[in-house]
Amino acid sequence: QVQLVESGGGLVQAGGSLRLSCAASGRTFSTYTMAWFRQAPGKEREFVAAGGWSGGSTYYGDPVKGRFAISRDNAKNTFYLQMNSLKAEDTAVYHCAAGLSAASGRPQSYEYWGQGTQVTVSS
């Protein structure tokens, strides 16, 4: 069984920064694509960013390009989302996801999901 646990969410003022973490356990994630999605109340799940564990290309949703960045620590099986220049519209529950398909913005590409961590940006 694969478990993903997100942490690092919280309340931050507009213009501030947060770093989210996704701790993965249960399997070796060296071949998994990892991704972040977010969902705001009343809205559909939105792709944020994705990339492979062993390097290669990274992908970002248009709303976060230039402000967010993903990284990983393979030794710790942890995946990160650095969020800078936060805006009120970034407020959402952020979910970590893992899958064996190539990096994609489609939720269907990911088999495993975490419970999410709340990010609230005050304007």
- Given the helix and strand composition, which structural class is it? mainly beta
What average pLDDT do the residues reach? 92
Amount of beta strand? over 45%
Order of helices and strands: EEEEEEEEEEE
Rough outline: globular
Rounded to an integer in angstroms, the radius of gyration calculated over CA atoms is 13 Å
Number of DSSP E strands: 11
Biggest β-sheet: count, sense, barrel?
Answer: 7 strands, mixed
Which stretches of 5+ consecutive residues score pLDDT under 50? none
Helix content: under 10%
Number of helices: 0
What is the end-to-end distance?
A: 40 Å
Looking at this protein, list some descriptive labels:
mainly beta; globular; 123 residues; seven-stranded mixed sheet
Question: Would you give an account of this structure?
Answer:
This protein has strands at residues 3-7, 10-13, 18-25, 33-39, 46-52, 58-60, 68-73, 78-83, 92-99, 112-113, 117-122. With 123 residues, it is mainly beta. The strands form two sheets. Strands 2, 4, 5, 6, 9, 10 and 11 form a seven-stranded mixed beta sheet that branches. The protein is globular. The N and C termini lie far apart (40 Å). The mean pLDDT is 92.
What is shown here, in short?
With 123 residues, the protein is mainly β. It is 0% helix and 50% strand.
What secondary-structure arrangement, pairings included, does this model have?
Layout: E1 3-7, E2 10-13, E3 18-25, E4 33-39, E5 46-52, E6 58-60, E7 68-73, E8 78-83, E9 92-99, E10 112-113, E11 117-122
Parallel strand pairs: 2-11
Antiparallel strand pairs: 1-3, 3-8, 4-5, 4-9, 5-6, 7-8, 9-10, 9-11
